[in-house]
Amino acid sequence: MSDIRKILVPVTFSEFSEELIEYAVGVARPLSAEVVFMNVIDQRDIQAVQTITSFGYEVDETHYIQEVEKQRIGILEERLNRINYPDEKMRVVFKKGRPAAVLLKFAIDEKMDLIIMDVKGKSEIVHALSGSVAEKMFRYSPVPVLSYRRKEIADKLLKRMQI
């Protein structure tokens, strides 16, 4: 693990993302690694705004993206302020596009050493990964991907495994 110097953490701003942030920083701390928190504004959301605009409503795509970034930056900064980790070791990045493709390209271009992701499954892990961004990341990433399990999910999986 001593070769891990840059960690990518995709953040979705779900109610559980704070746990993911704390976990990622916990992994980074003994390695003194840089942690890049990244959020991707999904291209589908942008296309929805474009569709609404085509119906004659006054919705500005650029304004929408700026407002979403502003809101998410505020949430992320609030969460990062509660984390005891040097500011110079944390970075926040926002992109737009298809999340898995954007994350993979960024991880490769920025020479990330590890990706730490939350799997948001509500039931079986097979269904949780099927067709999701996480499934695509696990399948196609040349960078190792570490799957973070919230306690609630881990407990469910452990309960299932008991025979």
Architecture overview:
By secondary structure, this protein is an alpha/beta fold. Helix content is 49%, strand content 19%. It contains 7 helices and 5 strands. Strands 3-2-1-4-5 form a 5-stranded parallel β-sheet, sandwiched between helices. The model is unreliable at 121-130 (pLDDT under 50).
Radius of gyration: 17 Å
Written as H for each helix and E for each strand, in order along the chain, the element string is EHEHHEHEHHEH
Count of individual helical segments: 7
The percentage helix is 40-55%
Backbone structural class: alpha/beta
Mean pLDDT: 83
Task: Describe this structure in a few short sentences.
This protein is α/β, with parallel strands linked by helices. It contains 7 helices and 5 strands; from the N terminus they run E-H-E-H-H-E-H-E-H-H-E-H.
Core attributes:
single chain; 163 residues; alpha/beta; 5-stranded parallel β-sheet; 7 helices
